[in-house]
Amino acid sequence: MMKLPTLSPAWRRAGADAALLLVLGLFMGAVGPFGAALMQAPQRYAYWVANIVGGGLIGVLIDETLGRRVRGFAGRVAVTSLVMTPPVAVYVQAVARMMFGPQRLPHWPTFLWQVLVISVLVMAVRALVWRAPRRVVETRTVIAAPAPEAEAAFRAHLSARRRAARLIAIEAHDHYLRVHTDAGVELVTLRFADAMAELAGAHGFQVHRSWWVAADAIEAVRWRRGSGEARLVGEVTAPVSRTHAPALKAAGWF
């Protein structure tokens, strides 16, 4: 079986431009602006298709050479449209002579303005079609599982039942701690400062002067008007203070 030749990207883009200009020409033929609505339908469509496709190709040539040097969507469309207007105006007059015979010369300021308006429309539509989609980069904070020895010293204070359980949060109450795990809550006689020292190498955050939460236990963080709260697994909610919020914010939670 004979293999068909593959078109290069440049030819595929040129074909797409021609198809777009054809569609725009048919649209303008249907609308019939600038008095063209008085023409018979076949003449009107032929006139606008010839002008939009031919004039548009002039604009594409200018855009791909001069326009690409201009930064910004609006600036590029404006420069291309202004530069293409004079040659396109001459081209449109040539099309009119070929289709309808000798024509009286138009009022050039008005005529150039009309050509400029159509040029801006065509080039803006083309620029929007070829505009690169906005790149959306999704970031996610990945928390590695804590090393066993990082929590070993603190876990030694827990009962055998909860020593191997998932650590969720620690809440300070006077001279004891309320330890939240997936195996339940346990009270431990220990100062909060000592617990923080023992958990210095663990993956977690002190979110309040009396709360520490495990990083992998956080489900969501809400922050509003200078204070917030962290929703944890097991329907546990921990307050987030202004002092300790930056660590959570740096981790991407809000």
List the helices and strands and how they pair.
Elements (H helix, E strand, L loop, with lengths): L8 H23 L9 H25 L7 H28 L7 H23 L17 H8 L4 H4 L3 E7 L2 E6 L2 E5 L3 H7 L5 E5 L2 E4 L3 E7 L2 E6 L3 E5 L4 H6 L4
Antiparallel strand pairs: 1-2, 1-5, 2-3, 4-5, 6-7, 7-8
Helix pairs in contact: 1-2, 2-3, 3-4
Q: Could you describe the largest sheet, including whether it forms a barrel? A: 5 strands, antiparallel
Indicate the percent of residues in helices: 40-55%
Number of domains: 2
Structural class per helix/strand content? alpha+beta
How are helices and strands ordered from N to C?
Answer: HHHHHHEEEHEEEEEH
Task: Please tally the helical runs, counting DSSP H or I stretches of 4 or more residues.
Answer: 8
Quantity of strands, as a count: 8
Radius of gyration: 35 Å
Strand content: 15-25%
Mean pLDDT: 84
Strand order of the largest sheet: 3-2-1-5-4
Our measurement of the CA-to-CA distance between the termini, rounded to an integer number of angstroms, reads 59 Å
The parts where pLDDT drops under 50 for at least 5 residues are: none
User: Given the C-alpha coordinates, what overall shape results?
Assistant: rod-shaped
